[in-house]
Amino acid sequence: MDTLTKEQRDILLDYYFECANQNESEIARGLLENHQGAVEFFSRLYDSLSPLEHLNTENDTNCPDHLVEKTLAGIYSQSQSSDEPVSVNRLEKLLAEESQKVATKRSSFWKGLAETVGVAAAILIMSGIFVPVSRNMRAHAWQTACQANLSKISRGLTQYAGDNQGFLPAVATKAGSPWWRVGSEGQESQSNTRHLWLLVRNGYAEPEAFTCQGCARGKTIKLDRGQLVKLPDFPNRRYISYSFKLISDSNRAAYPKSATPLMSDANPIFESCLKTQTCLSKGEFEPIRVCEKLARINSYNHRTKGQNIMFSDGAVRFTTQRIFGQNDDIFTVRDLNIYRGNEKPNTEADIFLVP
User: Fold this and answer.
1) Which of the residues in the chain have pLDDT under 70?
2) Which structural domain range is residue 288 located in?
3) Does 216 reside within a domain?
4) Does pTM top 0.70 for this prediction?
5) pLDDT for position 24
6) Residues with Cβ < 8 Å from 70, sequence gap 6 or more?
7) Contacts of 9 (CB under 8 A, 6+ apart)
8) Which of 109, 132, 155 is where one domain is finished?
């Protein structure tokens, strides 16, 4: 098997337990595509833990009281009996041995369950040695980094408004034009992100501030200033993880004086269309009906646990709340259930953050 470094194993473990950030996820996918050792390591990890997904928890809910204590005691005893710390090689050996057991043994339900849960517990405990930050801690770190991004953008918006008679950044956009074609290069604006791109082009904000670390698809633009100023918009949706107040010629907005939502983690309603470039290449937007689930769901940037929202007073808050003001859902247009990608609010009080 091709040798993996400790760092590579750590990344693969993070990726398996779904707590890798966007850069680590890309590295993990690259390893699984090109590194035979990574493929074998990941396969053994999957083989050892996947039986847990098939346990009949409805009919067999009672687990022996001694099982977890015995498993933990055994692992602790093993680690204390050696002067050397528990190594990655032990984990690999454990995976190999238990994969062999699962493949060859046909024991009673409880014995099989004990073995499977024991392996799972051991791997989870050992992986904690290699992954110092838990999933919850990692999620909190992403939320904090995301808040810092939005705070930087907020300062840029405030400075821009101060230099432009109190208006938010805006390019000429006809009411009813598409707002979802991020990266379109036509002369007419068909993307609500072009307004925010003015902050990047004019030096009010750096491009990396527009990528949330919690967004699995997010990427940072790696272009110099000379290249950036030639672009009319973010190259595509991967380079902006946030949604902004919809602006068009009919509702060009002055910078709000009261605390109003201006920007947030990506609107979750349109993820099915905007997560790939399929719709952009076809020049189409598949109509979306806001069902009960879409009416409640939070941004995918933070695994639907909530979203950071930037307010016009400079505050940035992580919340599960979508409704503000006069019963206004920031991710929808009031009283509208079907979307085709060219909607606009009828009033200034109806905030609509897109794409």
Assistant:
1) 1-2, 22, 46-135, 250-252, 273-283
2) 136-354
3) yes
4) no
5) 80
6) none
7) 41, 88, 130
8) 132
